[in-house]
Write a structure and sequence with these properties.
The protein is α/β, with parallel strands linked by helices and 439 residues long. It folds into three domains: 45 residues; 131 residues, Periplasmic binding protein-like II (D-Maltodextrin-Binding Protein, domain 2, 3-Layer(aba) Sandwich), CATH 3.40.190; 209 residues, D-Maltodextrin-Binding Protein, domain 2 (3-Layer(aba) Sandwich), CATH 3.40.190. Helix content is 46%, strand content 12%. It is built from 18 helices and eleven strands. The strands form two sheets. Strands 5, 6, 7, 8, 10 and 11 form a six-stranded mixed sheet that branches. A five-stranded mixed sheet has the order 2-1-3-9-4, with helices on one face. α3 links the parallel β1 and β2. The longest helix is centred in the first third of the chain and has 23 residues.
Length: 439
């Protein structure tokens, strides 16, 4: 009310001033300053933003504090926007699907292996063409986890990880071992360690999911390093597991890892137990993802740790590291605050924010020009990247329903419940069934 009275008084004074001036000077010389001032004041009043709250849904519990820091910085720049994060670690995919089914869709949520399925349901905003995507590395953006074959981007990658073999450099040095790049060299490493009563691999198969990363460290270079379009060819009926010898190599090498680890206790040891084995020098290697770095370091900060790719042939050029975009975010197509969601995604692509995220999460950034130095092992990964010795595919293009069947095939083969021929035949059938169901 006070502001309205003040504005009214100002207008009356200006009108009085204009009337007085018109009586003394020609009309063409009437001052124009008053209308200009009045025009500039109105937009200032209308520029005040209505409060907006964004719901951010993700499963990265370890990133909760980092997100809190980023959100605080974002809200400082955009004080009318509040971002509330919800972290769901128990069956996050199932929880998200339930939200989609009941139309309780978060404004922004984590993209994962089922992003493309969610996009097909019409729930996601197509981000292709957004200016902030130009800040993202082309390799990360083009991953089939985020962008489909038609060029529609359904999630924005934030960071990148790798699936690899961690190895104890001191143990390798003690026995004169170099990083193997061929199957023969790998066999020599295993034989040397065995002859010296050193457990080669730490295995935590009580947590069944740990078998899959080890297999993907092999499948990525063995299969997709040679046949980048293998998934599409398989779905089209142009190839198969049985007709691709490289898949046999994957399973045979995985069994070799199993037979040269804590084989007798593998299915009684969990993921944390395997990390502890490596950290405490009870095993020379462990095949898993970069995410295992933190639990290993938390047990032994001083371990002389390295990262290497697994050999998959007698050609050293085939020993590539499985690097992939890890964490990504999508925007709900039905969000009432799409522009504010875009502002948040743009904020995440700023170099200083991307560096904060990656160094805290101990992952490589998907943002151009952001270098990280979160651990000495980063130098090993960067060496593979700089040499072009990386693969980015593996399971990212698989039919969603196929994942569970693949994961079930691993222990069945390792424990001798199915030979290689039966395993390949079962995988072919499972893929075809899953692909047909997804049509």
């Amino acid at each position: 009310m006070k502001r309205s009275i003040a504005v009214l008084m100002t207008v009356l004074l200006l009108l009085s001033f204009a009337t007085a001036c018109s009586a003394q000077t020609p009309a063409v010389q009437t001052p124009t300053e008053a209308p200009v001032e009045q025009a500039t004041e109105a937009p200032a009043a209308s520029a005040e933003k209505e409060p907006v709250t964004l719901h951010l849904f993700h499963q990265k519990q370890e990133a909760q504090e980092t997100f809190a820091q980023i959100i605080e910085k974002f809200e400082t720049e955009y004080p009318y926007i509040t971002v509330e994060q919800e972290i769901v670690t128990n069956e996050p995919a199932a929880v998200l699907k339930a939200r989609l089914a009941t139309d309780e869709i978060p404004d922004i949520f984590q993209g994962a292996l089922d992003t493309m399925d969610i996009a097909k349901g019409g729930y996601l905003l197509d981000l292709s063409g957004e200016a902030f995507l130009s800040n993202i590395n082309d390799a990360a953006l083009s991953s089939s986890s985020f962008t489909d074959a038609d060029g529609h981007t359904w999630a924005m990658p934030i960071d990148g990880s790798c699936i690899c073999v961690f190895y104890n450099k001191d143990i390798f040095a003690q026995y004169g071992l170099a990083v193997p790049t061929t199957l023969s060299e790998f066999d020599n490493v295993l034989a040397t360690l065995k002859s010296n009563n050193v457990t080669a691999f730490a295995l935590g198969f009580k947590d069944a999911w740990t078998m899959k990363p080890a297999s993907l460290a092999l499948a990525s270079p063995a299969v997709y390093g040679k046949y980048p379009t293998w998934d599409a060819e398989k779905t089209a009926g142009a190839t198969s597991f049985a007709a691709t010898p490289e898949w046999t190599v994957v399973f045979e090498q995985l069994k070799k890892i199993y037979e040269n680890g804590n084989t007798k206790t593998a299915f009684d040891t969990d993921y944390n137990g395997a990390c502890a084995m490596l950290a405490q020098g009870e095993a020379a290697m462990m095949a898993n993802g970069l995410w295992a770095l933190e639990p290993i370091r938390s047990i032994n900060p001083d371990i002389n740790l390295g990262i290497m790719a697994l050999p998959v042939s007698e050609n050293p050029a085939d020993a590539k590291l499985h690097q992939f975009p890890d964490f990504g975010l999508s925007i709900s197509k039905t969000s009432k605050h799409i522009e504010e969601c875009k502002l948040f995604l743009e904020f995440l692509t700023r170099p200083e924010i991307a560096e904060l995220w990656s160094n805290s999460a101990k992952l490589f950034s998907a943002v151009k020009g952001v270098s990280v130095n979160f651990d000495p092992v980063a130098a090993d990964v960067n060496a593979y990247i700089d040499a072009g010795m990386v693969c980015t595919q593996a399971d990212r293009g698989w039919p969603t329903a196929f994942h569970a069947e693949y994961e079930a095939s691993l222990p069945a083969y390792l424990l001798g419940h199915a030979d290689i021929a039966a395993t390949m035949a079962a995988l072919d059938t499972a893929w075809d069934t899953a692909a047909n169901a997804a049509k």
